[in-house]
């Protein structure tokens, strides 16, 4: 008899390359260099936009893409939508039709509305779709990206792009194929396209605080939404798909799903991922079974090739002080950076506490990083120079996975082990041709217990 509860969890267990390319594109887009020559070749073609995963971010990303097209003078129209849930496709269609229909940005029909576990396949195969926005749970990114690339489509993929060693290798492989076939892949790590971040990292790399000797990063936030169980009507797979943040095989856990932004900023400043991680974590607040098998707090020490240590703290606690920021320590001083769309500020100080350089985008005005992502995507496609940035974001996703697996296992772990040797593959069997409704048997059921959980 299965030892799974209704949510598919064990009853017992409830207790460098990418970064350089990306920075260059971001810098070019921010300087407006792409917009002058890049669109000359676009002619009158309307690019067809499709979306897999009609949630909050997905609907937002569609608006960002249509806005990017408008600002660049390009024709882009939403032509197809896909989700496991009909209410989600309806909501997204309504929102985009209302905002963009009058401007010609909406053209979805009943025939191009795909609902169900295989909806992503139908959308990716549709001839009117040129670009697939992929905003499903992260654990399915390898599937949707593979399908999009196989069908010759350009991709916008949200972060994180993988949740384990196996999906890391899958997305790198899809990236290689996309590159060979002249397809673009742009990713949703929007700090990379935020002026203030790009500015801060450039000053760091130019030595504003001397040589970096250490860094701290925080993603301490409140708890997340939970959609319930469909009044008892959802089968275990549907339940997990709808409540995906709580299941490691779907979200990568909070450290990959959310904290990636601030961990990615450290990799960006260091020029690549760390060599190893030593971590701790657990769950003390969200312990009930409806919260799946993720932890609610992590603390990780990453070590980079040059010996620099970077300390990360991340958590989801209600009623506590939130903190989302980065701090670098250098031989000549410190740099503090506090992200906040539209109001990001950074300040570099000497060791005497005196300000050396600072930027406050509340005063200076900021760019629109979520729109810039799509400008880079569209500009690359229409100028026949498609942007390819999967490697850097896959490396940052794997950096988060490295911290998570070190916390889960209680062991110090090396990045290269996870990237090249580990078999780590979290998804249930039978997913590779598309998820199916029904019971879910997780390969590593339940909450991981350090010392008992072993990675192979
Ligand atoms: N860059 C950012 O600032 C940012 C912000 C929020 C979310 N995100 C990322 O965007 C992605 C989506 O997050 P969200 O907040 O929109 O979540 P969400 O739950 O609102 O949306 C996910 C959607 O995917 C659908 N879905 C689930 N399984 C599916 C399947 N097999 N096929 C098709 N559709 C499926 C769900 O029904 C849902 O509508 C995640 O990767 C998340 O990390 C990024």
What does this structure look like?
- It is globular, with a radius of gyration of 21 Å.
- Strand 5, helix 7 and strand 6 (185-187) form a beta-alpha-beta unit.
- It has two domains: 16-191 and 370-390, NAD(P)-binding Rossmann-like Domain (Rossmann fold, 3-Layer(aba) Sandwich), CATH 3.40.50; 195-367 and 397-421, Dihydrodipicolinate Reductase, domain 2 (2-Layer Sandwich), CATH 3.30.360.10.
- Helix 3 runs parallel beside helix 4 (86-100) and helix 3 crosses helix 14.
- The protein contains 16 helices and 15 strands.
- The protein is an alpha/beta fold and 456 residues long.
- Mean pLDDT is 88; it is low at 1-42.
- Helices cover 36% and strands 20% of the residues.
- It has a nine-stranded mixed sheet. Strands 3-2-1-4-5-6 form a six-stranded parallel sheet, with helices on both faces.
- The protein has helices at 17-30, 33-37, 56-72, 86-100, 119-125, 141-150, 165-180, 195-205, 236-242, 248-251, 254-257, 260-270, 361-364, 369-382, 390-409, 415-421; strands at 46-52, 75-83, 113-115, 131-134, 154-157, 185-187, 212-221, 276-282, 297-303, 309-316, 323-330, 333-338, 345-350, 355-360, 413-414.
- The two termini are 27 Å apart.
- The structure holds nicotinamide-adenine-dinucleotide.
- Nicotinamide-adenine-dinucleotide binds at residues 52-58, 82-85, 88, 117, 119-120, 135-138, 140, 158-159, 188, 190, 241-242, 257, 435.
């Amino acid at each position: 008899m299965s030892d799974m509860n209704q949510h598919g969890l064990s009853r017992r267990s409830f207790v460098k390359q990418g970064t350089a390319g990306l920075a260059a594109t971001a810098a070019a887009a921010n300087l407006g260099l792409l917009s002058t020559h890049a669109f000359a070749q676009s002619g009158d073609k309307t690019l067809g936009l499709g979306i897999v995963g009609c949630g909050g971010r997905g609907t937002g990303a569609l608006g960002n893409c249509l806005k990017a097209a408008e600002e660049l003078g390009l024709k882009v129209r939403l032509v197809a939508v896909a989700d496991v849930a009909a209410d989600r496709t309806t909501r997204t269609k309504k929102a985009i039709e209302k905002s963009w229909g009058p401007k010609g940005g909406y053209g979805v029909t009943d025939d191009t509305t795909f609902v169900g576990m295989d909806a992503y396949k139908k959308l990716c195969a549709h001839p009117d779709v040129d670009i697939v926005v992929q905003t499903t749970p992260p654990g399915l990114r390898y599937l949707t990206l593979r399908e999009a690339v196989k069908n010759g489509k350009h991709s916008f993929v949200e972060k994180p792009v993988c949740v384990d060693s196996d999906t890391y290798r899958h997305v790198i492989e899809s990236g290689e194929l996309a590159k060979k076939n002249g397809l673009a892949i742009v990713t949703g790590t929007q700090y990379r396209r935020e002026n203030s971040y790009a500015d801060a990292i450039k000053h760091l790399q130019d030595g504003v605080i001397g040589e970096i000797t250490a860094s701290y990063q925080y993603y301490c936030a409140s708890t997340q939404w939970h959609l319930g169980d469909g009044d008892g009507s959802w089968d275990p797979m549907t339940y997990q798909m709808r409540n995906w943040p709580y299941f490691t095989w779907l979200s990568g856990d909070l450290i990959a799903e959310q904290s990636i932004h601030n961990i990615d900023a450290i990799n960006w400043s260091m020029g690549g991922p760390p060599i190893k991680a030593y971590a701790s974590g657990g769950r003390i607040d969200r312990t009930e079974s409806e919260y799946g098998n993720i932890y609610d707090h992590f603390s990780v020490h990453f070590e980079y090739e040059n010996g620099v240590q970077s300390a990360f703290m991340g958590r989801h606690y209600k009623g506590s002080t939130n903190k989302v920021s980065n701090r670098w320590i250098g031989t000549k001083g410190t740099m503090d950076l506090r992200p906040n769309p539209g109001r990001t500020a950074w300040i570099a100080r000497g060791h005497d506490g005196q300000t050396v350089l600072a930027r406050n985008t509340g005063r200076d005005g900021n760019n629109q990083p979520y729109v810039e992502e799509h400008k880079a995507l569209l500009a690359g496609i229409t100028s026949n120079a498609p942007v390819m940035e999967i490697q850097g974001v896959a490396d940052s996703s794997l950096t988060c996975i490295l911290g998570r697996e070190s916390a889960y296992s209680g062991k110090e772990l090396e990045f290269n082990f996870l990237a090249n040797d580990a078999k780590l593959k979290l998804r249930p069997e039978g997913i590779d041709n598309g998820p199916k409704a029904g019971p879910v048997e997780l390969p590593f059921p339940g909450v991981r217990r350090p010392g008992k959980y072993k990675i192979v």
